[in-house]
Amino acid sequence: MTTVRDVREKAGTEPITMLTAYDATTAAVVDEAGIDVVLVGDSMGNTALGYDTTLPVTVEDVASRTAAVGRATTDALVVADMPFLSVGVDEASSIEHCGRMLKEANADAVKLESGPHTVELTERLVELGIPVMAHLGLTPQRMKETGYGRQGTNRDEAHGILDLARQHEQAGAFSLVLEHVPANLAKQVTQALSIPTIGIGAGAECDGQVLVVDDVLGLSDRSPPFARQFGNVREEMTSAVEAYRDAVESGEFPADEHEHVQDELEDLY
Ligand SMILES: Nc1nc(=O)c2c([nH]1)NC[C@@H]1CN(c3ccc(C(=O)N[C@@H](CCC(=O)O)C(=O)O)cc3)CN21
Ligand SMILES: CC(C)C(=O)C(=O)O
Ligand SMILES: [Mg+2]
Q: Is the overall model pTM greater than 0.90, yes or no?
C-alpha cells in the first residue's frame, strides 16, 4: 500500500511514476505494473466519456470512476481529480465534494487545479484529513481563458507559478503536478520545494512523471505534443474486433468447442 507519506518521502530520491486510469480493468494493469500513483483524472472527459474538454465532467463521474479504480487497486495510491467548479465556489461545497471522494469513493487523496483561490482551501482540507495534490502550469479547466499552450513562459508568469507552488507547499499539499511548463522553470520549482513535483510536459527534472494512460497505450485519437505513445493498443483492439466480426460473418465462430449440445433436447417437436 502506497501512502501519501511514501510519495512525499520519494522527493529527491527515486522517480515517482503516475498514470491515469478511469476503470477497473485499466487500473488493475497499472497497479500490477508497479506504478506508484493512479490518478482518476478529469481527462476522463476527453477519453472515457467522449467530450471535447474536461469541463462537463461531474463529481458523480469522478466518484464512480474512482470507486471502480479503487476496487481494482491493491498497491498504488488512488487520487481523485476534482472536476471543474467542484471546488472553489464556496468552502462548504468544496469540502463536501472532496470529502465524498474519500468517504464514498475510497480515494486516498484529491487533486485540485490550483491557483490563488486554492491556497486557503488546501490548508483547510489538509487540516480536516484530506490529502491534497496541487496542480500548476497548464490547468485545462481554465482552457477557455488560457488555451492549451505552454504556461510560465515569461519571467512574470514563471514567478507567479513558483510563488503559488511555495504557497501550496506551505498550505500542506503533499505533492505538485506541473503541466506544460518550460523544463528550466520546473527544475527551479522542484529545487525550491521539499514536496515532490510530478511533471507532464515539464521536462526531466521533476521528482516524478505523469501521463494520460490512453496516450501511453496508443488509444487516443489525439495526444498533446509532450505525450509519448508506448504501445499500439488501439490497433490491437481494432484487429481483434475485426477478426470477431469476420468469424461471425463467415460462420467460423462459434465453433464446436464453444457450443453445448444436450442429448435429451433432440426432437422437441
Ligand atoms: N488524452 C489526453 N491527454 C492529455 O494529456 C490531456 C487530455 N487528454 N485532456 C486534458 C488535458 C488537455 N491537455 C492538452 C491538450 C492539448 C495540448 C496541445 O495540443 N498543445 C499544443 C497546442 C497549444 C494551443 O492550442 O495553443 C502546444 O503546442 O502546446 C496540450 C495539453 C493535457 N490533458
Ligand atoms: C494529466 C493529469 C495531470 C490530469 O490532471 C488529468 O489526467 O486529468
Ligand atoms: Mg486533470
A: yes
